[in-house]
Amino acid sequence: LAMYSTLLGQPAPTPGMTGGPSANGTYNGQPLVGTTKIAFFDLNAGTRMEILAGDPDQPSWWRDVYNKKGFEVHHMGYVVNEPIWPAVQRFQAAGLGDPVQWAHWGKVDQPGSGCYVYMDSQLTLGVTVEILANEADCDDLPAPPHSKG
Fold first, then answer.
1. pTM of the full predicted structure?
2. DSSP symbol at 60
3. Per-residue model confidence (pLDDT) at position 7
């Protein structure tokens, strides 16, 4: 955050936490237990840069991509204004990548909440694609599997 703060001439944002069991998410067919620190820089009215630091001790796409590739651009995010899962299926049908992690953010069914799906497009596009939707378009997001134990 300090390096980007210097580069952009902006104060460093205070990071929050996201992910984990409260996100009601899935990673590689298992309940999402990994978390990540998250912070945003507003670059202009339509562009935000998101900085992530995944928990190194719990499985998540954040951790696993970092362990494989190191410090990098992790993903490009796109908001859809439609039910999210059909958009995911179109991306997958086009051969661009498969969904590997998805979850909700915010409080489900409350204003300002929503969901995301990370698409593993590392081999096709060289970066993970994140498909995002507002809460009203998250109803078809698959539920996470039940925890074992």
1. 0.78
2. -
3. 86
